[in-house]
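User: Can you fold this complex?
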Amino acid sequence: MPGRRRPDPRGPRSAPADRFDCYAHVPQLTDDGWTRAGFGAGELVHLNFDEWYRLDGTFAFAEWKYERNRPVFYHQVLDVPAWAELSIERDLLPRFWPAVTLVHQALMLATGELIPSPAFSMSYFRHPTEGTAQNAGAFARETIVSRHEPTTVLDEGRLATAADDHALLASAPAALAVPEVAAALTALERTARPEFRPLNVFVHSVIALEALAMSDVRTDLTRTFSRRLAVLLAVEHGTVEAAAAEFQAFYRARSRVLHGEDLDPIVAASGYEPLEFLLVGRACLCQAVVELVRLLRDRTVGNDLVAIRGSLDRAWTDRTAFDALRARP
Amino acid sequence: MIEARFYSQLYGLELSVPPVDLDEGVLLYPDEQEWGWIERADVSEERGPAGNARLACHRLVSEDADYEVLAGPVWAEARAKAADVVLALRLHKPGDVRDWWLVGSTLVTPHDGFVQRRVGRYRQWEPHVPGSRRYRLEDADVEPVRRLTVLCRRYRSSDADNFSTTIALENFGLSYGPWLTDSDRLTMLFTAVEAVFGGFREHDHAGVSLAERAAIAVGGPAGPDAEVRLFWAGPARSLRNRVAHAGLPDDEESAAAVEAVRATLRPALASYVAWSLAARPSGTTPRDGFNAALVAASRGDAVAADLLW
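Assistant: Here's the predicted assembly.
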Protein backbone atom coordinates (compact mmCIF):
# COMPACT_ATOMS: atom_id res chain seq x y z
CA MET A 1 0.00 0.00 0.00
CA PRO A 2 1.61 3.25 -1.01
CA GLY A 3 2.33 5.76 1.72
CA ARG A 4 0.87 9.28 1.75
CA ARG A 5 2.34 11.53 -0.85
CA ARG A 6 4.84 13.95 0.61
CA PRO A 7 4.06 17.62 -0.03
CA ASP A 8 5.99 19.29 -2.86
CA PRO A 9 8.59 21.55 -1.16
CA ARG A 10 8.12 24.11 -3.98
CA GLY A 11 4.47 24.57 -2.89
CA PRO A 12 1.36 23.67 -4.87
CA ARG A 13 1.85 23.40 -8.59
CA SER A 14 0.07 26.09 -10.49
CA ALA A 15 -1.11 26.20 -14.04
CA PRO A 16 0.74 28.55 -16.42
CA ALA A 17 -0.54 32.09 -15.96
CA ASP A 18 -0.55 35.36 -17.86
CA ARG A 19 0.28 38.37 -15.74
CA PHE A 20 -1.40 41.67 -16.52
CA ASP A 21 -0.75 45.12 -15.12
CA CYS A 22 -4.25 46.63 -14.95
CA TYR A 23 -4.73 50.39 -14.64
CA ALA A 24 -7.93 52.40 -14.18
CA HIS A 25 -7.83 56.19 -14.29
CA VAL A 26 -9.76 57.91 -11.49
CA PRO A 27 -11.26 61.09 -13.05
CA GLN A 28 -10.81 64.46 -11.37
CA LEU A 29 -8.43 63.16 -8.73
CA THR A 30 -4.87 64.38 -8.30
CA ASP A 31 -2.06 63.77 -5.82
CA ASP A 32 -0.24 66.44 -3.85
CA GLY A 33 3.22 65.18 -4.65
CA TRP A 34 3.23 61.49 -3.74
CA THR A 35 3.59 59.09 -6.65
CA ARG A 36 2.77 55.63 -5.29
CA ALA A 37 0.70 54.39 -2.36
CA GLY A 38 -0.41 50.86 -1.54
CA PHE A 39 -4.18 50.59 -1.69
CA GLY A 40 -6.13 47.37 -1.18
CA ALA A 41 -4.79 44.63 -3.39
CA GLY A 42 -3.05 47.19 -5.61
CA GLU A 43 -1.80 50.75 -5.44
CA LEU A 44 -2.76 54.29 -6.32
CA VAL A 45 -0.16 55.72 -8.62
CA HIS A 46 0.59 58.90 -10.49
CA LEU A 47 2.14 57.70 -13.74
CA ASN A 48 4.54 60.24 -15.22
CA PHE A 49 3.90 61.20 -18.83
CA ASP A 50 6.38 58.70 -20.27
CA GLU A 51 4.84 55.85 -18.28
CA TRP A 52 1.35 56.82 -19.45
CA TYR A 53 2.55 57.28 -23.03
CA ARG A 54 3.84 53.71 -23.03
CA LEU A 55 0.31 52.58 -22.16
CA ASP A 56 -1.50 54.98 -24.48
CA GLY A 57 0.33 56.76 -27.28
CA THR A 58 -2.63 58.87 -28.43
CA PHE A 59 -1.41 62.29 -27.28
CA ALA A 60 2.27 62.67 -28.08
CA PHE A 61 2.36 66.40 -27.33
CA ALA A 62 0.22 66.63 -24.20
CA GLU A 63 3.00 66.37 -21.62
CA TRP A 64 2.62 69.86 -20.20
CA LYS A 65 -1.14 69.56 -19.74
CA TYR A 66 -0.81 66.01 -18.44
CA GLU A 67 1.75 66.89 -15.80
CA ARG A 68 -0.24 69.94 -14.77
CA ASN A 69 -3.26 67.67 -14.21
CA ARG A 70 -1.24 64.93 -12.45
CA PRO A 71 -3.81 62.15 -12.99
CA VAL A 72 -4.05 59.27 -10.52
CA PHE A 73 -4.56 55.63 -11.57
CA TYR A 74 -5.46 52.52 -9.62
CA HIS A 75 -3.00 49.76 -10.53
CA GLN A 76 -3.36 46.08 -9.74
CA VAL A 77 -1.54 43.00 -11.02
CA LEU A 78 -3.79 40.13 -12.05
CA ASP A 79 -2.78 36.62 -13.01
CA VAL A 80 -5.12 34.74 -15.29
CA PRO A 81 -4.75 31.22 -16.68
CA ALA A 82 -2.72 31.37 -19.87
CA TRP A 83 -4.68 30.50 -22.99
CA ALA A 84 -4.70 31.64 -26.54
CA GLU A 85 -8.22 33.06 -26.61
CA LEU A 86 -7.88 35.38 -23.64
CA SER A 87 -10.44 38.15 -23.54
CA ILE A 88 -10.29 41.36 -21.51
CA GLU A 89 -14.08 41.43 -21.08
CA ARG A 90 -14.37 37.81 -20.02
CA ASP A 91 -11.16 37.17 -18.13
CA LEU A 92 -9.98 40.47 -16.64
CA LEU A 93 -12.86 42.92 -16.25
CA PRO A 94 -14.98 40.68 -13.97
CA ARG A 95 -12.08 40.58 -11.50
CA PHE A 96 -10.64 44.05 -11.99
CA TRP A 97 -13.84 46.08 -12.10
CA PRO A 98 -15.25 45.13 -8.67
CA ALA A 99 -11.86 46.08 -7.21
CA VAL A 100 -11.95 49.44 -9.02
CA THR A 101 -15.51 50.10 -7.83
CA LEU A 102 -14.48 49.50 -4.22
CA VAL A 103 -11.50 51.86 -4.61
CA HIS A 104 -13.77 54.53 -6.10
CA GLN A 105 -16.29 54.16 -3.27
CA ALA A 106 -13.55 54.43 -0.65
CA LEU A 107 -12.19 57.59 -2.29
CA MET A 108 -15.65 59.18 -2.38
CA LEU A 109 -16.40 58.24 1.22
CA ALA A 110 -13.05 59.44 2.56
CA THR A 111 -13.10 62.81 0.80
CA GLY A 112 -16.82 63.57 0.48
CA GLU A 113 -15.88 65.07 -2.89
CA LEU A 114 -17.35 64.74 -6.38
CA ILE A 115 -15.17 62.08 -8.00
CA PRO A 116 -16.76 60.60 -11.15
CA SER A 117 -16.58 56.86 -11.65
CA PRO A 118 -13.44 55.41 -13.30
CA ALA A 119 -15.88 53.63 -15.64
CA PHE A 120 -16.14 56.92 -17.55
CA SER A 121 -12.40 57.21 -18.18
CA MET A 122 -9.68 54.92 -19.59
CA SER A 123 -8.46 51.58 -18.32
CA TYR A 124 -5.42 49.69 -19.59
CA PHE A 125 -4.33 46.05 -19.47
CA ARG A 126 -0.61 45.57 -20.15
CA HIS A 127 0.87 42.18 -20.87
CA PRO A 128 4.68 41.89 -20.64
CA THR A 129 5.04 40.58 -24.19
CA GLU A 130 1.71 40.99 -25.98
CA GLY A 131 1.24 44.73 -25.60
CA THR A 132 -1.49 46.83 -23.99
CA ALA A 133 -5.26 46.66 -24.45
CA GLN A 134 -7.47 49.68 -23.74
CA ASN A 135 -11.00 50.13 -22.54
CA ALA A 136 -12.45 53.62 -23.16
CA GLY A 137 -15.30 55.10 -21.15
CA ALA A 138 -17.42 58.04 -22.27
CA PHE A 139 -14.93 60.70 -21.17
CA ALA A 140 -12.18 58.86 -23.09
CA ARG A 141 -8.88 60.67 -22.26
CA GLU A 142 -10.46 64.03 -21.54
CA THR A 143 -9.98 63.95 -17.76
CA ILE A 144 -6.51 62.42 -18.07
CA VAL A 145 -5.08 65.15 -20.25
CA SER A 146 -7.16 68.13 -19.10
CA ARG A 147 -8.03 69.33 -15.64
CA HIS A 148 -11.76 69.59 -14.96
CA GLU A 149 -13.27 71.19 -11.91
CA PRO A 150 -13.87 70.15 -9.28
CA THR A 151 -10.60 68.26 -8.99
CA THR A 152 -9.96 66.54 -5.66
CA VAL A 153 -6.47 66.78 -4.22
CA LEU A 154 -5.67 63.58 -2.37
CA ASP A 155 -3.19 64.63 0.29
CA GLU A 156 -1.56 62.06 2.54
CA GLY A 157 -4.12 62.48 5.32
CA ARG A 158 -7.06 61.82 3.02
CA LEU A 159 -5.12 59.00 1.35
CA ALA A 160 -4.75 57.28 4.73
CA THR A 161 -8.46 57.76 5.49
CA ALA A 162 -9.35 56.36 2.06
CA ALA A 163 -7.15 53.31 2.69
CA ASP A 164 -8.92 52.75 6.03
CA ASP A 165 -12.35 53.12 4.41
CA HIS A 166 -11.31 50.73 1.66
CA ALA A 167 -10.30 48.13 4.25
CA LEU A 168 -13.65 48.62 5.98
CA LEU A 169 -15.64 48.18 2.75
CA ALA A 170 -13.60 45.15 1.70
CA SER A 171 -14.26 43.51 5.06
CA ALA A 172 -18.02 44.10 5.01
CA PRO A 173 -19.62 42.69 1.83
CA ALA A 174 -22.87 41.87 3.66
CA ALA A 175 -23.19 45.46 4.89
CA LEU A 176 -22.69 46.80 1.35
CA ALA A 177 -25.54 44.57 0.19
CA VAL A 178 -28.03 46.12 2.64
CA PRO A 179 -30.43 47.88 0.22
CA GLU A 180 -30.32 51.31 1.88
CA VAL A 181 -26.50 51.23 2.00
CA ALA A 182 -26.27 50.06 -1.62
CA ALA A 183 -28.69 52.84 -2.62
CA ALA A 184 -26.60 55.43 -0.77
CA LEU A 185 -23.42 54.30 -2.56
CA THR A 186 -25.25 54.46 -5.89
CA ALA A 187 -26.47 57.96 -5.05
CA LEU A 188 -22.90 59.03 -4.28
CA GLU A 189 -21.68 57.69 -7.63
CA ARG A 190 -24.56 59.17 -9.62
CA THR A 191 -24.35 62.63 -8.07
CA ALA A 192 -20.58 62.80 -8.64
CA ARG A 193 -21.22 63.01 -12.39
CA PRO A 194 -20.62 66.35 -14.06
CA GLU A 195 -24.27 66.89 -15.01
CA PHE A 196 -25.34 67.16 -11.35
CA ARG A 197 -25.43 70.68 -9.95
CA PRO A 198 -24.71 71.26 -6.24
CA LEU A 199 -28.34 71.94 -5.30
CA ASN A 200 -29.43 68.64 -6.83
CA VAL A 201 -26.46 66.84 -5.22
CA PHE A 202 -27.73 68.19 -1.89
CA VAL A 203 -31.32 67.05 -2.49
CA HIS A 204 -30.25 63.53 -3.51
CA SER A 205 -27.82 63.32 -0.56
CA VAL A 206 -30.53 64.18 1.97
CA ILE A 207 -32.94 61.73 0.33
CA ALA A 208 -30.29 58.98 0.66
CA LEU A 209 -29.70 60.00 4.29
CA GLU A 210 -33.44 59.72 4.90
CA ALA A 211 -33.46 56.18 3.51
CA LEU A 212 -30.53 55.23 5.75
CA ALA A 213 -31.92 56.82 8.88
CA MET A 214 -35.66 56.30 8.76
CA SER A 215 -37.24 54.30 5.98
CA ASP A 216 -39.21 52.74 8.88
CA VAL A 217 -40.99 55.84 10.22
CA ARG A 218 -44.02 57.80 9.01
CA THR A 219 -44.37 60.61 11.57
CA ASP A 220 -42.15 63.08 13.36
CA LEU A 221 -39.76 62.91 10.43
CA THR A 222 -37.59 65.96 11.08
CA ARG A 223 -36.94 65.00 14.69
CA THR A 224 -36.21 61.34 13.92
CA PHE A 225 -33.92 62.28 11.03
CA SER A 226 -31.91 64.81 12.98
CA ARG A 227 -31.59 62.83 16.21
CA ARG A 228 -30.60 59.51 14.65
CA LEU A 229 -27.98 61.05 12.40
CA ALA A 230 -26.66 63.27 15.18
CA VAL A 231 -26.14 60.23 17.39
CA LEU A 232 -24.59 58.31 14.50
CA LEU A 233 -22.02 61.00 13.69
CA ALA A 234 -21.42 62.91 16.94
CA VAL A 235 -18.00 62.34 18.42
CA GLU A 236 -19.23 62.49 22.02
CA HIS A 237 -22.60 62.49 23.71
CA GLY A 238 -22.25 66.11 24.78
CA THR A 239 -22.38 67.28 21.17
CA VAL A 240 -25.44 65.40 19.91
CA GLU A 241 -27.83 68.32 20.37
CA ALA A 242 -25.64 70.67 18.33
CA ALA A 243 -25.28 67.98 15.64
CA ALA A 244 -29.04 67.43 15.62
CA ALA A 245 -29.60 71.14 15.02
CA GLU A 246 -27.39 70.89 11.93
CA PHE A 247 -29.27 67.86 10.57
CA GLN A 248 -32.55 69.59 11.26
CA ALA A 249 -31.30 72.46 9.08
CA PHE A 250 -30.45 70.00 6.28
CA TYR A 251 -33.86 68.38 6.45
CA ARG A 252 -35.67 71.70 6.45
CA ALA A 253 -33.52 72.88 3.56
CA ARG A 254 -34.48 69.82 1.53
CA SER A 255 -38.12 70.53 2.25
CA ARG A 256 -37.78 74.21 1.29
CA VAL A 257 -36.09 73.32 -2.01
CA LEU A 258 -38.85 70.92 -2.99
CA HIS A 259 -41.49 73.46 -1.98
CA GLY A 260 -39.78 76.11 -4.09
CA GLU A 261 -38.65 78.38 -1.28
CA ASP A 262 -35.20 79.92 -1.13
CA LEU A 263 -32.59 78.69 1.31
CA ASP A 264 -31.21 82.02 2.49
CA PRO A 265 -32.64 81.97 6.05
CA ILE A 266 -31.43 78.42 6.74
CA VAL A 267 -28.00 78.90 5.18
CA ALA A 268 -27.49 82.21 6.97
CA ALA A 269 -28.34 80.61 10.33
CA SER A 270 -26.04 77.64 9.65
CA GLY A 271 -22.84 79.68 9.43
CA TYR A 272 -21.87 78.00 6.16
CA GLU A 273 -21.38 79.65 2.79
CA PRO A 274 -24.21 78.58 0.41
CA LEU A 275 -22.13 76.18 -1.69
CA GLU A 276 -20.40 74.83 1.39
CA PHE A 277 -23.80 74.14 3.02
CA LEU A 278 -24.88 72.08 0.01
CA LEU A 279 -21.70 70.04 -0.10
CA VAL A 280 -21.66 69.40 3.66
CA GLY A 281 -24.87 67.45 3.04
CA ARG A 282 -22.91 65.08 0.80
CA ALA A 283 -20.04 64.85 3.29
CA CYS A 284 -22.54 63.83 6.01
CA LEU A 285 -23.93 61.12 3.74
CA CYS A 286 -20.38 59.77 3.29
CA GLN A 287 -19.74 59.74 7.03
CA ALA A 288 -23.11 58.11 7.71
CA VAL A 289 -22.38 55.31 5.24
CA VAL A 290 -18.98 54.65 6.83
CA GLU A 291 -20.42 54.55 10.35
CA LEU A 292 -23.34 52.30 9.39
CA VAL A 293 -21.10 49.89 7.49
CA ARG A 294 -18.86 49.70 10.55
CA LEU A 295 -21.82 49.02 12.88
CA LEU A 296 -23.29 46.44 10.49
CA ARG A 297 -19.96 44.68 10.16
CA ASP A 298 -19.06 44.68 13.83
CA ARG A 299 -22.59 43.79 14.99
CA THR A 300 -21.91 45.70 18.20
CA VAL A 301 -25.53 46.87 18.49
CA GLY A 302 -27.39 44.44 16.24
CA ASN A 303 -27.38 42.69 12.92
CA ASP A 304 -29.47 45.00 10.77
CA LEU A 305 -30.52 48.58 10.19
CA VAL A 306 -33.67 48.17 12.27
CA ALA A 307 -31.66 47.18 15.34
CA ILE A 308 -29.12 49.94 14.74
CA ARG A 309 -31.88 52.55 14.42
CA GLY A 310 -33.33 51.35 17.73
CA SER A 311 -29.90 51.82 19.32
CA LEU A 312 -29.60 55.29 17.81
CA ASP A 313 -32.97 56.23 19.34
CA ARG A 314 -31.92 54.96 22.78
CA ALA A 315 -28.53 56.66 22.58
CA TRP A 316 -30.14 60.09 22.18
CA THR A 317 -30.83 60.16 25.93
CA ASP A 318 -28.79 57.22 27.19
CA ARG A 319 -25.05 57.83 27.39
CA THR A 320 -24.33 54.13 27.96
CA ALA A 321 -26.13 53.24 24.76
CA PHE A 322 -24.17 56.01 23.00
CA ASP A 323 -20.89 54.58 24.25
CA ALA A 324 -21.95 51.10 23.06
CA LEU A 325 -22.31 52.53 19.54
CA ARG A 326 -18.78 53.89 19.69
CA ALA A 327 -17.29 50.66 21.09
CA ARG A 328 -14.93 48.82 18.76
CA PRO A 329 -14.54 45.06 19.07
CA MET B 1 -20.99 92.53 -38.90
CA ILE B 2 -19.74 88.96 -38.42
CA GLU B 3 -22.19 86.14 -39.07
CA ALA B 4 -21.78 83.17 -36.74
CA ARG B 5 -23.47 79.77 -36.76
CA PHE B 6 -23.93 77.77 -33.59
CA TYR B 7 -24.44 74.00 -33.81
CA SER B 8 -25.57 71.93 -30.83
CA GLN B 9 -25.57 68.16 -31.35
CA LEU B 10 -28.88 66.52 -30.41
CA TYR B 11 -28.29 62.81 -30.98
CA GLY B 12 -31.28 60.47 -31.02
CA LEU B 13 -33.52 62.98 -32.78
CA GLU B 14 -35.07 61.86 -36.06
CA LEU B 15 -36.64 64.51 -38.27
CA SER B 16 -39.49 63.55 -40.61
CA VAL B 17 -39.24 66.70 -42.72
CA PRO B 18 -36.00 68.57 -42.06
CA PRO B 19 -35.22 71.34 -41.52
CA VAL B 20 -37.65 72.15 -38.73
CA ASP B 21 -37.92 75.85 -38.00
CA LEU B 22 -38.50 76.51 -34.32
CA ASP B 23 -39.05 79.81 -32.59
CA GLU B 24 -35.34 80.57 -32.65
CA GLY B 25 -33.09 78.17 -34.48
CA VAL B 26 -33.55 75.23 -36.77
CA LEU B 27 -33.41 71.45 -36.27
CA LEU B 28 -31.64 69.80 -39.18
CA TYR B 29 -29.28 67.16 -40.49
CA PRO B 30 -26.14 69.17 -41.26
CA ASP B 31 -24.59 68.76 -44.70
CA GLU B 32 -21.08 67.49 -45.34
CA GLN B 33 -19.48 70.93 -45.14
CA GLU B 34 -21.22 71.63 -41.85
CA TRP B 35 -20.07 68.29 -40.38
CA GLY B 36 -16.56 69.33 -41.33
CA TRP B 37 -17.01 72.22 -38.91
CA ILE B 38 -18.94 70.39 -36.19
CA GLU B 39 -16.68 67.37 -35.66
CA ARG B 40 -12.99 66.68 -36.08
CA ALA B 41 -12.49 64.30 -38.99
CA ASP B 42 -10.99 61.57 -36.80
CA VAL B 43 -14.03 61.60 -34.50
CA SER B 44 -16.36 61.19 -37.49
CA GLU B 45 -14.18 58.43 -38.91
CA GLU B 46 -14.28 56.50 -35.62
CA ARG B 47 -18.00 56.13 -36.12
CA GLY B 48 -17.48 53.71 -38.96
CA PRO B 49 -19.94 53.18 -41.80
CA ALA B 50 -22.84 54.98 -40.07
CA GLY B 51 -20.69 58.13 -39.89
CA ASN B 52 -22.65 61.30 -39.29
CA ALA B 53 -25.69 60.19 -41.27
CA ARG B 54 -28.96 61.17 -39.64
CA LEU B 55 -27.34 62.79 -36.62
CA ALA B 56 -29.37 65.92 -35.92
CA CYS B 57 -28.27 69.33 -34.69
CA HIS B 58 -29.86 72.55 -33.50
CA ARG B 59 -28.50 75.45 -35.59
CA LEU B 60 -28.79 79.09 -34.69
CA VAL B 61 -27.44 81.95 -36.79
CA SER B 62 -26.50 85.26 -35.19
CA GLU B 63 -24.56 88.43 -35.98
CA ASP B 64 -22.41 90.83 -34.04
CA ALA B 65 -19.57 93.19 -34.82
CA ASP B 66 -17.41 91.76 -32.06
CA TYR B 67 -16.11 88.18 -32.23
CA GLU B 68 -15.55 88.11 -28.46
CA VAL B 69 -19.25 88.82 -27.93
CA LEU B 70 -20.21 86.03 -30.35
CA ALA B 71 -17.89 83.54 -28.67
CA GLY B 72 -19.01 84.66 -25.22
CA PRO B 73 -22.59 85.64 -24.31
CA VAL B 74 -24.10 84.98 -27.76
CA TRP B 75 -22.78 81.40 -27.86
CA ALA B 76 -23.87 80.84 -24.25
CA GLU B 77 -27.38 81.98 -25.17
CA ALA B 78 -27.35 79.76 -28.28
CA ARG B 79 -26.50 76.74 -26.11
CA ALA B 80 -29.21 77.67 -23.63
CA LYS B 81 -31.71 77.89 -26.50
CA ALA B 82 -30.69 74.42 -27.66
CA ALA B 83 -31.28 73.19 -24.10
CA ASP B 84 -34.74 74.79 -24.21
CA VAL B 85 -35.47 72.79 -27.37
CA VAL B 86 -34.32 69.52 -25.77
CA LEU B 87 -36.53 70.15 -22.74
CA ALA B 88 -39.48 71.04 -24.98
CA LEU B 89 -39.04 67.87 -27.04
CA ARG B 90 -38.95 65.75 -23.88
CA LEU B 91 -41.97 67.51 -22.37
CA HIS B 92 -43.91 66.87 -25.57
CA LYS B 93 -43.58 63.10 -25.99
CA PRO B 94 -41.38 60.02 -25.33
CA GLY B 95 -38.12 59.41 -27.17
CA ASP B 96 -34.42 59.42 -26.36
CA VAL B 97 -33.04 62.77 -27.44
CA ARG B 98 -29.72 63.69 -25.90
CA ASP B 99 -28.47 66.96 -24.45
CA TRP B 100 -26.00 68.97 -26.50
CA TRP B 101 -23.96 69.66 -23.38
CA LEU B 102 -23.17 66.00 -22.93
CA VAL B 103 -22.04 65.67 -26.53
CA GLY B 104 -20.80 68.98 -27.93
CA SER B 105 -21.42 72.44 -29.36
CA THR B 106 -19.62 74.31 -32.16
CA LEU B 107 -19.24 77.94 -33.19
CA VAL B 108 -18.38 78.71 -36.84
CA THR B 109 -17.82 81.97 -38.66
CA PRO B 110 -18.35 80.83 -42.29
CA HIS B 111 -16.71 83.87 -43.93
CA ASP B 112 -13.28 82.84 -42.68
CA GLY B 113 -13.96 79.20 -41.76
CA PHE B 114 -12.96 79.77 -38.13
CA VAL B 115 -14.22 76.97 -35.89
CA GLN B 116 -14.39 76.73 -32.11
CA ARG B 117 -15.59 73.50 -30.51
CA ARG B 118 -16.87 72.95 -27.01
CA VAL B 119 -16.46 69.26 -26.34
CA GLY B 120 -19.15 67.61 -24.23
CA ARG B 121 -17.99 65.47 -21.34
CA TYR B 122 -19.68 62.39 -22.79
CA ARG B 123 -18.51 62.92 -26.34
CA GLN B 124 -17.58 59.25 -26.68
CA TRP B 125 -21.20 58.32 -26.03
CA GLU B 126 -22.38 56.17 -28.93
CA PRO B 127 -24.23 58.75 -31.05
CA HIS B 128 -26.50 56.40 -32.97
CA VAL B 129 -29.44 55.73 -30.65
CA PRO B 130 -31.16 52.38 -31.38
CA GLY B 131 -34.14 52.81 -33.71
CA SER B 132 -36.90 51.92 -31.26
CA ARG B 133 -35.74 54.52 -28.75
CA ARG B 134 -35.17 57.39 -31.18
CA TYR B 135 -37.25 60.55 -30.92
CA ARG B 136 -39.27 60.86 -34.15
CA LEU B 137 -40.33 64.44 -34.71
CA GLU B 138 -43.35 64.32 -37.05
CA ASP B 139 -45.10 67.26 -38.71
CA ALA B 140 -47.87 67.18 -36.12
CA ASP B 141 -45.32 67.57 -33.31
CA VAL B 142 -43.74 70.77 -34.59
CA GLU B 143 -46.30 73.30 -33.40
CA PRO B 144 -46.61 71.94 -29.82
CA VAL B 145 -42.82 71.63 -29.57
CA ARG B 146 -42.51 75.23 -30.79
CA ARG B 147 -44.96 76.40 -28.09
CA LEU B 148 -43.14 74.41 -25.39
CA THR B 149 -39.79 75.81 -26.55
CA VAL B 150 -41.10 79.34 -26.07
CA LEU B 151 -42.49 78.39 -22.65
CA CYS B 152 -39.14 76.91 -21.53
CA ARG B 153 -37.22 79.93 -22.78
CA ARG B 154 -39.56 82.33 -21.04
CA TYR B 155 -39.15 80.42 -17.78
CA ARG B 156 -35.34 80.33 -18.11
CA SER B 157 -35.06 84.03 -18.78
CA SER B 158 -37.70 85.18 -16.29
CA ASP B 159 -37.43 85.92 -12.60
CA ALA B 160 -40.22 83.39 -11.95
CA ASP B 161 -37.85 80.49 -11.50
CA ASN B 162 -37.96 78.79 -8.15
CA PHE B 163 -36.13 75.81 -6.65
CA SER B 164 -39.10 73.46 -6.84
CA THR B 165 -39.82 73.92 -10.55
CA THR B 166 -36.13 74.02 -11.42
CA ILE B 167 -35.26 70.86 -9.45
CA ALA B 168 -38.24 69.09 -11.00
CA LEU B 169 -37.19 70.05 -14.54
CA GLU B 170 -33.57 69.18 -13.83
CA ASN B 171 -34.35 65.69 -12.50
CA PHE B 172 -36.81 65.02 -15.32
CA GLY B 173 -34.01 65.87 -17.78
CA LEU B 174 -31.36 63.90 -15.89
CA SER B 175 -33.53 60.79 -16.12
CA TYR B 176 -32.56 60.73 -19.83
CA GLY B 177 -28.85 60.61 -18.93
CA PRO B 178 -26.25 58.04 -19.92
CA TRP B 179 -25.28 54.86 -18.05
CA LEU B 180 -28.21 54.80 -15.66
CA THR B 181 -30.25 51.88 -14.46
CA ASP B 182 -34.02 52.21 -14.54
CA SER B 183 -33.86 52.45 -10.74
CA ASP B 184 -31.54 55.46 -11.12
CA ARG B 185 -33.95 57.04 -13.59
CA LEU B 186 -36.90 56.42 -11.29
CA THR B 187 -35.01 57.90 -8.33
CA MET B 188 -34.64 61.12 -10.32
CA LEU B 189 -38.21 61.02 -11.57
CA PHE B 190 -39.65 60.49 -8.06
CA THR B 191 -37.57 63.47 -6.89
CA ALA B 192 -39.22 65.48 -9.68
CA VAL B 193 -42.64 64.16 -8.63
CA GLU B 194 -42.00 65.24 -5.05
CA ALA B 195 -40.99 68.70 -6.24
CA VAL B 196 -44.21 69.01 -8.26
CA PHE B 197 -46.81 67.28 -6.07
CA GLY B 198 -45.19 66.56 -2.67
CA GLY B 199 -44.77 63.14 -1.07
CA PHE B 200 -47.10 60.16 -1.43
CA ARG B 201 -48.38 60.63 2.11
CA GLU B 202 -49.09 64.32 1.70
CA HIS B 203 -52.43 65.80 0.81
CA ASP B 204 -52.77 69.37 -0.35
CA HIS B 205 -54.44 71.95 1.88
CA ALA B 206 -57.87 70.92 0.53
CA GLY B 207 -57.18 67.29 1.48
CA VAL B 208 -56.71 66.09 -2.11
CA SER B 209 -54.34 63.14 -2.60
CA LEU B 210 -51.30 63.04 -4.87
CA ALA B 211 -53.09 60.51 -7.09
CA GLU B 212 -56.01 62.87 -7.62
CA ARG B 213 -53.79 65.88 -8.34
CA ALA B 214 -51.69 63.85 -10.78
CA ALA B 215 -54.91 62.78 -12.53
CA ILE B 216 -56.01 66.43 -12.76
CA ALA B 217 -52.63 67.54 -14.15
CA VAL B 218 -52.65 64.85 -16.86
CA GLY B 219 -56.35 65.13 -17.71
CA GLY B 220 -56.24 68.90 -18.10
CA PRO B 221 -59.44 70.66 -19.16
CA ALA B 222 -61.03 67.31 -20.09
CA GLY B 223 -61.12 66.27 -16.44
CA PRO B 224 -59.04 63.95 -14.23
CA ASP B 225 -57.49 60.97 -15.97
CA ALA B 226 -58.83 57.80 -14.32
CA GLU B 227 -55.91 55.56 -15.35
CA VAL B 228 -53.38 58.00 -13.95
CA ARG B 229 -55.34 58.20 -10.69
CA LEU B 230 -55.21 54.39 -10.40
CA PHE B 231 -51.48 54.28 -11.16
CA TRP B 232 -50.55 56.86 -8.51
CA ALA B 233 -52.94 55.43 -5.91
CA GLY B 234 -51.38 51.96 -6.07
CA PRO B 235 -48.62 50.73 -8.37
CA ALA B 236 -46.56 53.93 -8.21
CA ARG B 237 -46.25 53.73 -4.44
CA SER B 238 -45.04 50.13 -4.49
CA LEU B 239 -42.73 51.03 -7.37
CA ARG B 240 -41.17 53.76 -5.26
CA ASN B 241 -40.65 51.35 -2.36
CA ARG B 242 -39.02 48.82 -4.64
CA VAL B 243 -36.68 51.47 -6.02
CA ALA B 244 -35.76 52.59 -2.48
CA HIS B 245 -35.05 48.99 -1.48
CA ALA B 246 -33.06 48.08 -4.61
CA GLY B 247 -35.73 45.57 -5.63
CA LEU B 248 -36.31 46.64 -9.20
CA PRO B 249 -34.03 44.99 -11.77
CA ASP B 250 -33.76 46.45 -15.28
CA ASP B 251 -36.32 44.76 -17.49
CA GLU B 252 -39.43 45.58 -19.54
CA GLU B 253 -41.41 46.31 -16.39
CA SER B 254 -38.91 48.87 -15.11
CA ALA B 255 -38.64 50.53 -18.53
CA ALA B 256 -42.44 50.79 -18.67
CA ALA B 257 -42.44 52.27 -15.16
CA VAL B 258 -39.96 54.96 -16.23
CA GLU B 259 -42.25 55.93 -19.10
CA ALA B 260 -45.37 55.83 -16.90
CA VAL B 261 -43.86 58.31 -14.43
CA ARG B 262 -42.61 60.54 -17.24
CA ALA B 263 -46.09 60.45 -18.80
CA THR B 264 -47.48 62.11 -15.67
CA LEU B 265 -44.59 64.53 -15.33
CA ARG B 266 -44.79 65.85 -18.92
CA PRO B 267 -48.12 67.70 -18.65
CA ALA B 268 -47.62 68.41 -14.94
CA LEU B 269 -44.26 70.10 -15.53
CA ALA B 270 -45.54 72.10 -18.48
CA SER B 271 -48.42 73.31 -16.30
CA TYR B 272 -46.09 74.05 -13.39
CA VAL B 273 -43.83 76.15 -15.62
CA ALA B 274 -46.82 78.01 -17.10
CA TRP B 275 -48.26 78.58 -13.64
CA SER B 276 -44.88 79.78 -12.26
CA LEU B 277 -44.71 82.36 -15.05
CA ALA B 278 -48.29 83.57 -14.60
CA ALA B 279 -48.95 83.39 -10.87
CA ARG B 280 -47.42 85.43 -8.08
CA PRO B 281 -48.96 83.80 -5.01
CA SER B 282 -48.32 85.32 -1.62
CA GLY B 283 -48.46 83.49 1.68
CA THR B 284 -47.85 80.09 0.13
CA THR B 285 -44.96 78.18 -1.41
CA PRO B 286 -44.81 77.72 -5.19
CA ARG B 287 -45.54 74.00 -4.88
CA ASP B 288 -48.53 74.50 -2.61
CA GLY B 289 -49.82 77.33 -4.80
CA PHE B 290 -49.56 75.20 -7.93
CA ASN B 291 -51.35 72.25 -6.34
CA ALA B 292 -54.08 74.52 -5.02
CA ALA B 293 -54.51 75.85 -8.56
CA LEU B 294 -54.78 72.29 -9.91
CA VAL B 295 -57.54 71.46 -7.43
CA ALA B 296 -59.32 74.76 -8.06
CA ALA B 297 -59.19 74.25 -11.82
CA SER B 298 -60.69 70.79 -11.48
CA ARG B 299 -63.57 72.32 -9.51
CA GLY B 300 -64.40 74.76 -12.27
CA ASP B 301 -62.22 77.77 -11.39
CA ALA B 302 -61.64 79.24 -14.86
CA VAL B 303 -58.96 81.68 -13.67
CA ALA B 304 -56.89 78.85 -12.18
CA ALA B 305 -57.39 76.72 -15.30
CA ASP B 306 -56.22 79.60 -17.44
CA LEU B 307 -52.96 79.86 -15.47
CA LEU B 308 -52.27 76.15 -15.95
CA TRP B 309 -53.32 75.16 -19.43
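Chain B has a mean pLDDT of 91. The beta strands of chain B are 2-9, 13-15, 20-21, 26-28, 57-64, 104-109, 114-119, 135-137.
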